[in-house]
Amino acid sequence: VSATHIEYVHASAFGNGARVAQEFASRMEARGATVSVHHVGEIDARRLPAADCYVFSSPGRFSRPIKGMRRFLKKLNLPAGTGYAILATGLQPQPDPKTGQMPSQEELGKCERVVPLMREALDAKGLVELAEDKVLVTSLKGPLEGGWQGRVEAFAARLAKEAA
Length: 164
Ligand SMILES: Cc1cc2nc3c(=O)[nH]c(=O)nc-3n(C[C@H](O)[C@H](O)[C@H](O)COP(=O)(O)O)c2cc1C
Known about the structure:
Layout: E1 5-10, H1 16-29, E2 34-39, E3 53-61, E4 64-65, H2 67-75, E5 83-91, H3 105-111, H4 114-123, E6 128-137, H5 148-163
Helix pairs in contact: 1-5
Flavin mononucleotide (FMN) binds next to helix 1, strand 3 and strand 5.
């Protein structure tokens, strides 16, 4: 992926997603790519800098992307066919406080719509998905789960392969 340039837009509220962005940037830079990281609040969705592909990362809010990211994706203006990847941050599944039971994958999938809603918004604009993943925090404000850097590395590796 040398000479590949990536624009990375995140909507981190408590800093965990910002750490993930920095980790991703250093992993991609080790592959010869360049990465510019921006917070959604600092960049105009209608005038994003040119890039070979884009990464959009959002924390979850009540099973949806945070409002700043929903608004950003609605306004987003990029040429059809542009490649993108999604990286969500969200809370690790918690046991039911009464029964101590962990929710099943199916139960989680029913309510958790952060990644699907981002994908729908981007696909509706004719953009092409290259990779997606979710990195977890162990409580609302963090910290990130153990081994999170490995997850970011695997995501970077998948994107590097797809973007090559
Ligand atoms: C009001 C509120 C609602 C949340 N709802 C969800 C949710 O539905 N799903 C989820 O996985 N995480 C949820 N979270 C946890 C956030 O995803 C977590 O705070 C965030 O990923 C941390 O990243 P940040 O430090 O970059 O903001 C919620 C957090 C808050 C404060």
